[in-house]
Amino acid sequence: MTNTIKGFRVVNEQAGEIEIDFEWYKEMSKAFVCITDKNISDLEFDCDCSLGSSGGMCGHFWLGVIFSFKKNFFNISNWTLFELPQEFIRKIENIEIIETKSGALLLTDKASDNFLLQEYIGSEISVKNGEILRSERKSYEYEGKETAYYLLTLKDAIVEKKTVPELTIRLSEGLYTKSLLKIGDRIEVKGKLIKDKFQGLLVKFIRHVTIGKLEKSKVKSTAKDKHWIVKSSSNANKSYTITLKADGSWSCTCPQFTFRKKQCKHISECKTKI
């Protein structure tokens, strides 16, 4: 199923009527499901997706079945319409219905690593003390124009007093470059938690990044040099390497430092981050 489930809505609790809101490339659609012990042999289902609208049993149908079963609208032992998938009950035993902070009802797997955050989907959250494990540049083209961004994987980030083993955040290329981020940095951000159909849970719409500061004495006492990669402000295709050496001296591969041996703006920016 290649669309994003936005949430479930109980239309009529007594009649077992529910609606499922979902999104396909920003186009909102919905499905209607009604399953009770009274109509279980001839249940009601209607969906806007291509498969469901042609009478097929799409993924939204199965989500409706699971939701209705978890709401106790029908008893699975009364199911006679067709044979259920093998070990159906066992496979969904960890599924729960939760209500997010924004009021949406969702199905969530208790065994999932992201279970701790499910209730915050659609809400603004604060992410603290997350260590950058991985950084990957992504891009897409729209109307002939390329837009680039970065996906960062954070380790042991604290979200609403909960420690999350791994969390993905999305930063614009401009913010990523401006922040001079590197693997191992611990950062704080604020953004909106969404459920992306490709990336899963993701924090986006981030406008500011705070980097945890290191004590200068620790930086100078290390036996290894520190390196940063910074893009040129005048040429997007160029990048410069800034180095903080073990003896405390700085260097940069930009023309100003290479030929004049003078402190450049790239070194000055890096100094503010330690």
Keywords:
alpha+beta; 4-stranded antiparallel sheet; 17% helix; 7 helices; 274 residues; 15 strands; 6-stranded antiparallel sheet
Summarize the structure in words:
The strands form 4 sheets. Strands 7, 8, 9, 10, 11 and 12 form a 6-stranded antiparallel beta sheet that branches. With 274 residues, the protein is an alpha+beta fold. The two termini are 46 Å apart. It is elongated and about 85 Å long. It has 7 helices and 15 strands.
- Tell me the radius of gyration: 25 Å
Average pLDDT reading: 85
The number of E-state strands comes to 15
Roughly what fraction of the amino acids lie in strands?
A: 35-45%
End-to-end distance, in Å? 46 Å
- Count up the helices: 7
What letter string, H or E per element, gives the SSE order? EEEEHHHEEEEEHEEEHEEEHH
Q: pLDDT under 50 segments (min length 5)?
A: 214-222
Which outline best applies? elongated
Name the helicity range: 10-25%
Element layout with pairings:
Blueprint: E1 4-12, E2 17-24, E3 27-34, E4 44-47, H1 50-53, H2 59-70, H3 88-91, E5 95-99, E6 105-109, E7 124-142, E8 145-159, E9 162-172, H4 173-179, E10 186-196, E11 200-204, E12 209-211, H5 216-221, E13 226-231, E14 239-244, E15 250-252, H6 255-260, H7 265-271
Short description:
The chain is built from seven helices and 15 strands.
